Amino acid sequence: MKLPAFYLLDAISKNVYDPYARHFAPIVANLFIETYEAVDPTTRSKMEEMLLTWRTGAPNGRELFGVVPQLAIEQHIWGSGATQTAVRSPPKRLKGRPDRRRKQMGSRASSSSSSISQAQVLSELEFVLGQKERQLHSNPYDKGTQHHVTVLQQLRALVQVGVSQEELRQILTQLRSLSASAPPAPAPSVPVPAPSSYAAAPTFAPPPPVPPVSAPPQPSRPQQPSYPVLSEQPKAEPIDFSRFLSAQQASAPSTSAAPPVSDITNLFNALVKAGVVPSSGTPSGTPKGAGASSQPEERPQQAADARDAARDYRKLILSRKVQLASADIIRQRPPVVDLLYNNLPTQCKQCGIRFPSTSNGKKQFEDHLDMHFRQNRKASQAVGRGHSRSWFISLEDWIHGDAVDMKGKGRADGRTLSSKAAAAEDAAKREAELRAMHVVVPPGDEAKPISCPICKEHLKSEFLEDEEEWVWRNAIKKDDRIYHATCHAEAAASKSSLAVRLRNETSSRSRSRTPERLTPPKMLAQADTRMSESPSPSKLAGMKRKAEDEASQPAKSEPDAPQVKRQAT
Amino acid sequence: MDRSENVDVHTKSWSLQPESEYRFELDPGTSLAIKLVSGHAEIFGAELAEGKTYLFGQECKAAVYTWQGCKIEQYVTGHPSVEYVSDETPMAPYANVHIALEQMRVRALAAATGSPLPPGEDNGGSSDAPRVLVLGPENSGKTSVCKILTNYAVRAGQEWAPMLVNVDPSEGAWAAPGAISAASISAPIQTATPASPLGSVATTAPNHVASNALLPLSYWYGHAEMRRNPLLMDRLIRNLGENIRDRWENDTAGRSSGLIVDTPSAFGASSGAGNDHRLMLIKSCVDAFNINVILVVGHEKLNVEMQRTYGNRMAVVKIPKSGGVVELDQSYRERVHKYQLHNYFYGCLIEAPPGLSTKAFVQAGEQTPELTMHLSPASMTVNFGDITIYRIGEETMAPTSALPIGATRAVSEMQPLLVDPAMPGSGLYNAVLAILAPPNPDESERYDEEVLDLPAVGYVVITALDMPNRRMTVLSPTQASLVGKTAIVGSFEWSE
Lengths: 569, 496
Fold this sequence. Notes:
The complex is a heterodimer of chains A (569) and B (496). Helix content of chain A is 50%, strand content 5%. Chain A is mostly helical. Chain A has four domains: 1-87, Alpha Horseshoe (Serine Threonine Protein Phosphatase 5, Tetratricopeptide repeat), CATH 1.25.40; 114-214 and 235-282, no CATH class; 289-379, no CATH class; 416-552, no CATH class. In chain A, the strands form three sheets. Chain A has a three-stranded antiparallel β-sheet with strand order 3-5-4, with no helix packed on it. In chain A, strands 1-2 form a two-stranded antiparallel ribbon. In chain A, α1 (2-15) packs antiparallel against α2 (18-38) and α4 (67-87) packs across α5. The relative contact order of chain A is 0.07. Chain B is of the alpha+beta class and 496 residues long. Among the domains of chain B are: 91-116 and 125-319, P-loop containing nucleotide triphosphate hydrolases (Rossmann fold); 378-493, Pre-mRNA cleavage complex subunit Clp1, C-terminal domain (Elongation Factor Tu (Ef-tu), domain 3, Beta Barrel). Chain B is built from eight helices and 24 strands. In chain B, the strands form four sheets. In chain B, strands 13-12-11-14-10-15-16 form a seven-stranded mixed β-sheet, with helices on both faces. Classes of the chains: A mainly alpha (569), B alpha+beta (496).
């Protein structure tokens, strides 16, 4: 019974934040601890989860109720030793800049922690694994990272089975050096999402490099952590993973044969040699490697590659003399292993789909990974909103639907858009672009509350990774005043023609209806042409284009259902 | 090793030899988690990713097949259901069929794009894409064959998007039972529950696997048995075929990928009553989808019959039936219908076996099933006047042969009858309604039987009838309004 009340408090504080979180702050620590003592273990774990989200719950990515209550609660729950280390392992979806910084701090302080729980190590493992996987997303051909991921996954399995206290500690230290030495991930190939309305929304964007120079000042923080210089070389720890692996996985083939190595890179090599880690990056036997070595360069080159690949495939397929006859299909030995496995060496680690090693295949694979990335992000953002089954698309859309898809790159999405939705899509795109506009916060003004003169709501500042600047999102500066870009556009439009105004109404209405829809490239092109005639070009000038803002995609149908009521399952 | 608290969890490892499969059958209320530890494995042609834990439930019966050998680990709740390893599978013949179909596809694509065939190959056959009809008796694994062939096609790396057509109303495929539908498949179809044997239709959730966000074209037949109204069935099949043809006009890749039709087992039952209907419906499938390959799954007599009728026009091939097929009884099918309707409205979240060491399960290919597989339907109140409900033909219809000689029906099989919810005994309580697409906006284009030709956009269930106020409560999959305001009621009922 107490948990829902806490969830309410949590929701109010996170979503509304401003006056409430401040008022809750003095009482929250005692309240939490008292409740924690009184409830059963499952509720406790739920509360712990919630507590973890509070670390970054504030709109600026800081502690929701400030550092003091947060630390007080954490120390009470996990003990003083664990606090430091636990700080380093927030749940996977809450990684942001502050975490990374705090993590550095924690890694220095925690070496003295007395006892290490399995859960703690696991969550750290998950964290590093997540880091590596994201790195892999942005650079899928990085074999080193691939190996890291594989080994980490094995380690995770190991820890889940259970290892001794001593080993846990060793894994922890090793992990720390690994995560600290992780080179800053390059910007992913997908555009960074325009974050949705509140900054606490979890994002899967990789943690940005931490440049000490441009780091924003954080006046309210009691202990300013210093930024340790990231060492590019992993610290050579006296302990190596292979010992654990060999000790724990005695059954695993020939791991024990791995020579003792002190460096994690060597370890990976040793594991690959020993056959524990499949060298997944290296294709095995590709008969049609014509385009395999060529880098994707230009579109014509790629089209030619695709054509060549299709030709090679055709040749390969037609070279089989299989007749569609009952006797023939039973007699033959099909070369299907080559067709379905060996010729498609690139495999998505998440869903098992394979791609050819041609440049066209690489392109498809990248698109596919982008799709996973987008969907993961959406899934994490949509938490709690609830999904529902859509109506099927209309006959007309079905007949013409996927034709658009086939030409475009949206294949992996398998989604199409109705022609009617195109107009709404257009409006949503306009709004997304407005929302992506930002004004750089003058130094020192981060904490200063600023509200939009039109809607009187607060502008939220956030850190823009591309620019390495703190900005006000969805903001525009006019005559020395900061407006919401959307509000300003609406106000400006209301003065101009009726047509523009109508469009804006559609766009503002679409804000409240937010199902997920992908934007096929065709539609975007249409939207672009309409964009050019929309309000005033001067407003669009300083605008940052962001690929999509799913949070503001429009619904296909209008919410005119009579007396709709959500049903809890 | 902290498994002490989970006494009834069974963990096992299986090492599969090349070309063998691990088969399992789940009982109601049990779930199974399988992890591919090493090697390559696939379930009905959809490859498993190594190291991921896949969940199965709702009495799923499936098999993990490996071409090259693999090692899997599994966990089961409750008592382990049937499970065994078999090395006698018909996968090699199926793969040969796949290669033969691929040959047709590449030829069709080459002809469509005008690119030359390799030397010495250009006289080998027609340039027709494969349009396959899969026939077979009950429990012969027709759906599995369709699934394997479709999955192999989309896995070929050639961006095929074959059309998968389901004309088995008792299966329901992508939506509710009683529907016949078609959908273009671009990613392997995953297996997790028998309620969505061919993937599932799109939701507002962000899905990772395209086969969980299918956009089917669906017509509502409304009954589980084909013999209930064969004329209606014939008409719907022809509608489906016509629309697929329209779609392919602008879609070369889709056209070259061809289609695969899964049929009801009644098509393969070569005895008893309704034989003429059976042949008529097979013919309408052949005509509607322009079939050029007929696969007969493990039925000699049917094969001979098809050879005689169609052997001169197209390839009729008998393919072996898998030894792993499970005899399914009527009550199982009814339970699956219930699961299907439940999943349509509420989504399907299979509970993982307790004691599983990881929390990262994959259910039907979804990485985060807890976030995306759980759906919230909406309950809404509708005035009687706001929606027009039809029933096609009479509710209980005597066969034509039972009528007095010379007599004609007062109500034909195809006549849409208006159902008045205010009438007692309307049979609407708990009934599943298909909401139809809006009729032609142009009044002059309308015709009497238009409702027969309108595709379904979704399904609702009437959960309450309020006679005095002339209102009813319906459970709708989404909060959006009931699109077409026209609905058809069939013989399916569902209650929670």
